[in-house]
Design a protein that fits this description.
This protein is of the alpha+beta class and 140 residues long. It is 36% helix and 26% strand.
Amino acid sequence: MKDKLLYIQQNLKAPKGQMNKFGGYKYRSCEDIFEAVKPLLKEKELILQTTDELVQIGERYYIKATAMLSDGKETITNTAYAREEETKKGMDGSQITGASSSYARKYALNGLFLIDDTKDSDSTNKGEEPTEEEAKAFIF
């Protein structure tokens, strides 16, 4: 199983196929990763599943996303968290949860498949204090 995961980690190409017109940067979505990994999963006869769980840590709610890779006998997992914002302009509660879910799943997949996001907007921190928006996107 570990050899199959290593193969995917070495061969997965998940380009940044989305463009943030406001910020002027490219990024990859969770769906981009799913589409890129499907042929490798088929080739190695593996199943990928993602799940979400709403967890409360302190007084805040987080989406806990888990990416699970299985050959039917063994399973390898990776988990990531994204905090739900209390409010976000133009979004209702279900949209806020959905955005947090997508974000957490993307980072669970990034960790599982070793997808490097060092050039993503999510990691453009150059040592300054984070903006309010960056602080709200905190994951751990």
